[in-house]
Amino acid sequence: MASSLAPVLITGASQRIGLHCAERLLDDGYPVIVSYRSERPGVQLLRDKGAMAIQADFSSQESVMTFIAQLKDITDRLRAIVHNASEWLAETQGDEGDVFMRMFNVHMLAPYLINLHCAELLRRSTTADIIHIGDDVTRKGSSKHIAYCASKAGMDNLTLSFAARYAPDIKVNGIAPAMLMFKPDDDAAYRTNTLAKSALGIEPGPDVIYQSLRYLMDNPYVTGTTLTVNGGRHVK
Ligand SMILES: NC(=O)C1=CN([C@@H]2O[C@H](COP(=O)(O)OP(=O)(O)OC[C@H]3O[C@@H](n4cnc5c(N)ncnc54)[C@H](OP(=O)(O)O)[C@@H]3O)[C@@H](O)[C@H]2O)C=CC1
Ligand SMILES: Nc1nc2c(c(=O)[nH]1)N=C([C@H](O)[C@@H](O)CO)CN2
User: Which reaction(s) does the protein catalyse, per the Swiss-Prot or TrEMBL entry (predicted)?
Assistant: First the structure.
């Protein structure tokens, strides 16, 4: 039976945090639309659970606008947009200019264009949210991920501007995580060093982001806010 709820869009949901949040939303009865860049097992898993999936690489204005057109072909309303798509690139991972543009495109240009061109879809939902997934590292900067950090700081600022522009129809907030889940190739020394950076010293896993996302979606009195989900790094 078709749901009366408007779908939630999560970008970059083929793996890890985005995949987990998409699954949780589906399990909680929300229709879900995801974008993915690479076909991974997680995309088919989501399709099998009823999600709609659009392939998109947010690497240029043209590709983002093509995605927006494809999105509007499959829905005329949205309950929420979760800007999760991201790459964690260091300055050593290629030409610096290319790294900067890739960080700016996925973390700022894509959310900016999607927010501007999809507000009409959100306004057709009784309650509507935009959520930017940022990074706690913007508090102090990053010597090894300069362009990444600057573009994530830009996302924090998008939260402020769009919150002002879209109130009261659409709430706009952010979530700023610190380390959530290690990668399989993270060695023991890296894991120990990373865990020591926070007061709580745990690898929390993806559900702390789903809990944060639901808090923002369910709370009618929060907008223009970025939730820090960092295990207390700032008090360590
Ligand atoms: N994991 C952590 O510990 C932390 C995560 N965060 C933030 O939380 C969010 C989720 O983290 P995590 O799940 O680890 O993220 P991932 O590194 O797994 O990236 C999420 C997805 O973004 C997609 N993506 C990357 N570049 C592009 C692009 N140019 N266009 C479209 N999609 C793209 C990837 O697609 P594909 O791989 O399919 O090509 C990937 O599946 C991110 O915004 C991240 O910055 C912040 C702090 C810590
Ligand atoms: N897109 C991504 N962004 C980030 C990731 C990641 O895996 N993908 N990971 C981190 C680290 O966990 C970092 O927080 C460790 O201090 C940051 N951003």
Answer: (6S)-5,6,7,8-tetrahydrofolate + NADP(+) = 7,8-dihydrofolate + NADPH + H(+); 7,8-dihydromonapterin + NADPH + H(+) = 5,6,7,8-tetrahydromonapterin + NADP(+)
